[in-house]
Design goal:
Length: 144
């Protein structure tokens, strides 16, 4: 797409173009050697097009092409794999309840263009190849 660096109001451009055409017509009307109007019309058109081309160059046209690179969105899900997640104070243990919530509630609402990565954390952070590989075998964290 072509955009102009210097683009005045369109009314100003039309007014200046009309004024230039009027001045060119007047110069041919008052010229000493009278020629046929067909030749005059041809010469008027050439002069007017030359002036229009110069004005277009002065407006500094530039080719602008927008390119958008959309990176795939990513979401990191942290899964607690400490030993406390093995406690059965819910129908299954805590970790199994968390995994089933992630599969049943989170996965269906995650957009298709989002890359979901699962990470296990206890005393350290580790990438999980799949959500099913998480187990509550991590070390206890020292309080204090």
């Amino acid at each position: 797409m072509i955009q102009f660096t210097y683009l005045p109001d369109i009314r100003l451009l039309v007014g200046a173009g009309t004024l230039a055409l009027g001045l060119i017509l007047l110069s041919y009307y008052y010229a000493k050697g009278k020629t046929q109007w067909s030749k005059r019309a041809w010469l008027i058109a050439l002069r007017w097009l030359t002036i229009a081309a110069i004005v277009a160059c002065l407006l500094d046209p530039q080719w602008v092409e927008s390119t958008k690179h959309q990176q795939k969105s990513r979401v990191a899900v942290l899964v607690d794999t400490s030993r406390s997640m093995g406690i059965k104070d819910v129908p299954q243990n805590r970790l199994e309840t968390a995994k089933s919530w992630l599969k049943d509630k989170f996965a269906p609402i995650a957009p298709a263009n989002v890359d979901v990565s699962y990470y296990a954390f206890n005393q350290s952070l580790a990438s999980l190849p799949s959500l099913n590989s998480a187990s509550p075998t991590g070390g206890l964290r020292a309080e204090g």
